[in-house]
Design brief:
Keywords: ATP-binding, Magnesium, Nucleotide-binding, Transferase, tRNA processing. Monomer. Substrate binds at residues 11-16. The protein has helices at residues 15-26, 51-56, 73-90, 101-108, 119-132, 134-144, 146-149, 157-170, 174-177, 198-214, 217-223, 239-245, 251-274, 288-301; strands at 2-8, 30-32, 59-60, 93-97, 187-195, 279-283. It has 302 residues and is α/β, with parallel strands linked by helices. It folds into 2 domains: 2-112 and 181-301, P-loop containing nucleotide triphosphate hydrolases (Rossmann fold); 119-177, Histone, subunit A, CATH 1.10.20. It has a 6-stranded parallel sheet with strand order 3-2-4-1-5-6, sandwiched between helices. The relative contact order is 0.16.
């Protein structure tokens, strides 16, 4: 049986470093399930692995798309499984890493077949969006499916439209539909997480945003302003700066909103992972001995 080690945890906790250390130990490659890092134009704002990190271990699905390309979670599931099958030919173990909860789920469990978009539903929801704003859609989804609302990127109106449409069509919660495994996987999944006290995590997130700004996030966002209507850019770190460019917000306020929204996203990730009982946790700033214990744990699971 082949093994997929899935490294999970909230944004800014250090998943990239752990994934690289594991890849080096097992002499293997890394598959990313961070849906924001797929886009090559968004390196700074998504904290994509650096050139040095990419050189330490082979990574897949990092900067492989343009923001102008449409890429669904279903396409990712198909592509990721195909890539895993290729990698398992030469490797007993492969590393999966990323904080996009649904994308990890797509790989390790599979997504249930969901209905196509219903045109009249979409039209009705679009009207609600235009007249009452994204807040109304957030309210509707929260009422229809609080579990999915707790983890969805609720600033992304397309995700909200899709979930509400599917709920209306199927009379079933979206979170229940996507929880049904489509088919079994012929590899063993070993989930590893990193955890830290919440204040420490939030402090790391704040400092990381400051570092992104120093590294040129403002220029990166400016170069992408013409694409701000695209789904890929409807995300934390960019949507706030677009409001600054439009003169709606001061720069300091936009940066503080990036920090706040990043912390909120981390909180939703923590809520999601807390429900799982199959994650082996390392503490942030783990020592070599902790890493050795982790390797021992992984070898026992195989």
């Amino acid at each position: 049986m082949k093994n997929l080690i899935s490294v999970v945890g909230p944004t800014g906790i250090g998943k990239t470093r752990l994934a690289i250390d594991l890849a080096k130990h097992f002499d293997t490659e890394i598959v990313s399930c961070d849906s924001r890092q797929f886009f090559k134009e968004m390196k700074i704002g998504t904290a994509s692995p650096s050139e040095e990190e990419l050189a330490e271990a082979s990574h897949h699905f990092i900067g492989n798309l343009s923001v102008e390309e449409y890429y669904s979670i279903g396409q990712y599931e198909e592509d990721a499984l195909k890539k895993l099958n290729e990698l398992f030919v030469n490797h007993e173990t492969v590393i999966l890493v990323g904080g996009s909860m649904m994308y990890e789920k797509a790989v390790i469990e599979g997504l249930n077949d969901l209905p196509e978009a219903n045109e009249s539903h979409q039209k009705k929801l679009q009207e609600i969006l235009e007249i009452e704003g994204v807040e109304k859609l957030q309210e509707m989804l929260k009422e229809l499916d609080p579990e999915y609302f707790a983890v969805v990127d609720f600033h992304n109106h397309r995700r909200l439209l899709r979930a509400i449409d599917v709920i209306w069509q199927t009379h079933t919660k979206y979170s229940d539909l996507i929880a049904v495994a489509q088919d079994s996987r012929d590899f063993k999944v070993i989930r590893i997480g990193i955890e830290a006290p919440r204040e420490e995590l939030y402090d790391r997130i704040n400092r990381r945003v400051d570092l992104m700004m120093k590294s040129g996030l403002l220029d990166e966002a400016k170069s992408l302003e013409k694409f701000k209507h695209l789904p890929a850019l409807n995300t934390v770190g960019y949507s706030e700066l677009f409001r600054y460019f439009e003169g709606e917000w001061e720069l300091d306020f936009a940066v503080s909103e990036i920090k706040k929204n990043s912390r909120r996203y981390a909180k939703r990730q923590l809520t999601w992972y807390r429900k799982a009982d199959d994650i082996y946790y390392l503490q942030l700033g783990y020592a070599q001995k902790d890493f050795e214990d982790l390797i021992e744990y992984i070898n026992l699971q195989k």
